[in-house]
């Protein structure tokens, strides 16, 4: 296992981690400058942050600062209710792929969607199996587009508490079953993003990480699970403040052949988003050395 204790060369910052400091948005250019100034080598930007500054400007700044990406957030949300909404999903995912290519991302991360309409509070039905079949259909379609652009797709299984509104793929086994069905040769075009927050509880986790292997492990996200957790979405903990055995998890991921970045992804409305962004980044660096 790599030694992270002496430097932070394998640290990446998911830009949501410092997006809303003290209630004020930190725009992407400021985040990128603050990361580069600290010797952070990689980031994972969100589409809305890129759109706010403009794709060309974001790509130019990332290049000028010598930053890499650990992923691009995000595509997906494949579930639909009619032909028009299916087409809208496809168009949006095609744009996400093109943006990922422009930004030189190593993969487009997919949050696959739950029951259509649920995120807005009005689920169209109760048939989660229908949603899962639409997700499989959507990824199968997107995979052709992704292959044409040589942009790998990383399916991110989300914790089951998000099954209704964000993602009906909830375990690593489920994500890998889909990978095996759609890309049986393990071509490199389709894999998974393993986020410690979503999968740490899963008794099958070590076996499924080993099953994934280097060929499917496209991204690795870290934060911590707080006890108690006070918000289902925006109460993620800083590494070391919760109950996830992060070094053990990274040991499994690296034993399976993963050698990429550890991407810190923290949504924390009441705590880390209330602090000065530089303090948050400095804490990420320190915890990455000590707790990841
Ligand atoms: Zn994640």
Question: How are the SSEs ordered, and which strands pair?
Answer:
Layout lengths: L10 E4 L13 H10 L4 E3 L2 H7 L1 H10 L3 E2 L2 E5 L6 H20 L5 E4 L16 H22 L3 E3 L16 H11 L7 E6 H4 L5 H12 E6 L23 H10 L6 E3 L12 H15 L1
Parallel strand pairs: 1-2, 1-9, 2-3, 4-5, 5-6, 6-7, 7-8, 8-9
Bound molecules: zinc ion (ZN).
Zinc ion binds next to loops.
Looking at this protein, list some descriptive labels.
292 residues, alpha/beta, TIM Barrel, nine-stranded parallel β-sheet, 9 strands, 41% helix, globular, binds zinc ion
Structural summary, described in words:
- The protein has a 9-stranded parallel beta sheet.
- The chain is built from 10 helices and 9 strands.
- It is globular.
- The model has no long low-confidence stretch (mean pLDDT 97).
- It has a single domain (11-291), classed as Divalent-metal-dependent TIM barrel enzymes (TIM Barrel), CATH 3.20.20.150.
- It starts with 10 loop residues before the first strand and ends with a helix.
- It has helices at 28-37, 47-53, 55-64, 83-102, 128-149, 172-182, 196-199, 205-216, 246-255, 277-291; strands at 11-14, 42-44, 68-69, 72-76, 108-111, 153-155, 190-195, 217-222, 262-264.
- With 292 residues, the protein is of the alpha/beta class.
- The relative contact order is 0.15.
- Strand 5, helix 5 and strand 6 (153-155) form a beta-alpha-beta unit.
- Bound molecules: zinc ion (ZN).
- Zinc ion binds next to loops.
């Amino acid at each position: 296992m790599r030694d992270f204790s002496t430097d932070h060369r394998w640290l990446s910052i998911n830009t949501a981690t410092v997006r809303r400091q003290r209630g004020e948005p930190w725009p992407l250019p400021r985040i990128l400058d603050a990361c580069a100034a600290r010797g952070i080598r990689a980031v994972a930007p969100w589409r809305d942050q890129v759109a706010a500054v403009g794709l060309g400007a974001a790509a130019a700044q990332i290049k000028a600062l010598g930053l890499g990406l650990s992923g691009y957030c995000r595509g997906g949300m494949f579930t639909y209710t009619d032909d028009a909404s299916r087409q809208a999903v496809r168009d949006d995912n095609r744009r996400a792929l093109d943006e990922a290519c422009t930004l030189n991302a190593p993969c487009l991360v997919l949050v696959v969607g739950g029951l259509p309409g649920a995120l807005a509070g009005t689920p169209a039905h109760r048939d989660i199996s229908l949603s899962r079949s639409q997700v499989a259909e959507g990824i199968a379609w997107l995979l052709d587009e992704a292959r044409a652009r040589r942009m790998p797709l990383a399916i991110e299984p989300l914790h089951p508490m998000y099954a209704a509104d964000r993602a009906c793929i909830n375990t690593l086994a489920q994500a890998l079953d889909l990978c095996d069905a759609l890309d049986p040769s393990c071509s490199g075009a389709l894999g998974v993003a393993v986020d410690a927050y979503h999968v740490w509880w899963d008794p099958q986790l070590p076996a499924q990480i080993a099953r994934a292997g280097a060929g499917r492990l496209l991204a690795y996200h870290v934060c911590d699970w707080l006890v108690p957790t006070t918000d289902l979405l925006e109460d993620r903990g800083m590494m070391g403040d919760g109950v996830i055995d992060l070094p053990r998890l990274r040991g499994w991921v690296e034993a399976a052949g993963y050698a990429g970045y550890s991407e810190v992804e923290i949504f924390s409305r009441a705590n880390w988003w209330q602090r000065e962004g530089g303090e948050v980044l400095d804490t990420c660096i320190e915890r990455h050395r000590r707790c990841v």
